[in-house]
Write a structure and sequence with these properties.
Layout (H helix, E strand, L loop, with lengths): L1 E2 L5 H6 L9 E2 L2 H17 L6 H11 L5 H18 L2
Parallel strand pairs: 1-2
Helix pairs in contact: 2-3
């Protein structure tokens, strides 16, 4: 079991840095902070993120949902965010 406490874990999951089946154990406060940071990043870039998608982020960060579900939903959005920085 891999113990991960960094608030940036959700972005790492979205970007596919962790393999399917890895277990994530982080505190509820860290999950909430990570979700808030992702939401703020999307809002700054003028992109919408639904409450349903925020719940999905929470489940992935808590290790309750396969990260592949999240990756497929957000790959296009992440590429769009990354292209703004270039």
């Amino acid at each position: 079991m891999k113990l991960i406490k960094e608030y940036g874990i959700i972005l790492d999951i979205i970007n596919g840095k962790f393999t399917q089946g890895e277990m994530f154990v982080i505190k509820k406060e860290d999950i909430e902070l990570a979700v808030a940071r992702v939401k703020a990043s999307f809002e700054i870039e003028g992109l919408d993120i639904s409450k349903n998608h925020l719940k999905i982020l929470e489940k992935v960060a808590a290790g309750k949902l396969d990260s592949n579900n999240l990756i497929s939903k957000y790959t296009k959005r992440i590429h769009k965010l990354n292209s703004y920085g270039n």
